[in-house]
């Protein structure tokens, strides 16, 4: 099973603005963009997780894989990096300590399956992979010495549950005051430190029971404007999938569209080939 888990050669062809010549040229400069789901979309997302008997994390992960499938123009054999809590046995749950381990998570998508079925596929896949999350990443990489740069680590996913309040970044425990560190380290007005090429983070705010998304991307590969458009496409896909008045979760995933409203209008205009001629006098 270790061999199955070590498909480190797989990666998705994201639409880069430029390419890095080698890993040595990584500058660490990145850009970040976030958006809130809002009450309505958060409600629909939560209801969808409940009705499909799945966790929010698994639903978010399925959404990410489908988004990558669309973003890469139909790449259906995907592999990303994901951190696991490493507590693969019940007796480890109560032990204090750092057990986090990064693993490659491969997902092979059938474009003709509905999003409902993709959720179940991703959930089963994740549960199966977690059984082997104790296996150190370095040991997996050592089984493939010909791979100098495991690209799956550069495209990552995380799901965060927090009690964060918007108005304050501190919590009190007894007489002690704790400050919450930002997920991204700001290095200038428009830039963050980025150790990944592309990472999508879902955050569930337990105080408000609402969700938000953050995309961090490397400026070595992406323009900031491109990341902004990618975030808009993700937001459009989320509304397309989960809002009750336009739900597409029963349709094959290849029918999903990432087109923005202005692009849809343009395509409709181009498809409207009817020509009106003036009536003869």
Automatic annotation (TrEMBL):
Entry-linked Pfam families: Condensation
SUPFAM superfamilies on file = CoA-dependent acyltransferases
According to the UniProt entry, its GO molecular function terms are: catalytic activity; phosphopantetheine binding
Q: What's the domain of life for this entry?
A: Eukaryota
Q: Which biological process terms from the Gene Ontology are attached to this UniProt entry?
A: amino acid activation for nonribosomal peptide biosynthetic process; secondary metabolite biosynthetic process
What cellular component GO annotations does this protein have? cytoplasm
Q: Where is the Condensation domain?
A: 21-243
Q: Which PANTHER family match?
A: FATTY ACID SYNTHASE (PTHR45527:SF1), NONRIBOSOMAL PEPTIDE SYNTHETASE (PTHR45527)
Protein name per its UniProtKB record:
Condensation domain-containing protein
User: What is the species listed in this Swiss-Prot or TrEMBL entry?
Assistant: Adineta steineri
Q: What is the lineage of its organism?
A: Eukaryota, Metazoa, Spiralia, Gnathifera, Rotifera
């Amino acid at each position: 099973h270790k061999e199955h888990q070590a498909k480190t050669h797989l990666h998705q062809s994201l639409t880069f603005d430029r390419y890095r010549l080698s890993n040595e040229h990584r500058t660490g400069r990145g850009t970040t963009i976030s958006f809130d789901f809002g009450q309505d979309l958060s409600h629909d997302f939560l209801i969808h997780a409940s009705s499909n008997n799945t966790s929010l994390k698994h639903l978010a992960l399925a959404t990410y894989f489908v988004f990558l499938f669309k973003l890469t123009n139909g790449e259906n054999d995907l592999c990303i990096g994901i951190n696991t809590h490493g507590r693969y046995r019940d007796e480890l749950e109560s032990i204090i300590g750092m057990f986090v381990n990064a693993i490659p998570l491969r997902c092979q998508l059938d474009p003709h399956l509905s999003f409902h079925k993709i959720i179940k596929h991703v959930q089963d896949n994740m549960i199966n992979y977690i059984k082997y999350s104790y296996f150190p990443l370095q040991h997996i990489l050592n089984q493939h010495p010909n791979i100098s740069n495991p690209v799956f680590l550069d495209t990552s996913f995380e799901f965060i549950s927090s009690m964060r309040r918007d108005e304050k970044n501190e919590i009190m425990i007894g007489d002690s005051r704790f400050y919450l560190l930002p997920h991204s380290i700001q290095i200038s007005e428009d830039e963050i430190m980025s150790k990944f090429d592309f990472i999508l983070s879902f955050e569930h705010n337990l105080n408000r029971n609402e969700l938000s998304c953050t995309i961090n991307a490397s400026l070595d590969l992406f323009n900031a404007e491109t990341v902004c458009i990618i975030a808009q496409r993700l937001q459009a896909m989320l509304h397309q999938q989960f809002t009750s008045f336009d739900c597409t979760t029963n349709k094959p995933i290849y029918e999903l569209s990432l087109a923005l409203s202005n692009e849809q209008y343009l395509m409709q205009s181009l498809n409207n080939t009817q020509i009106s001629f003036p009536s003869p006098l």
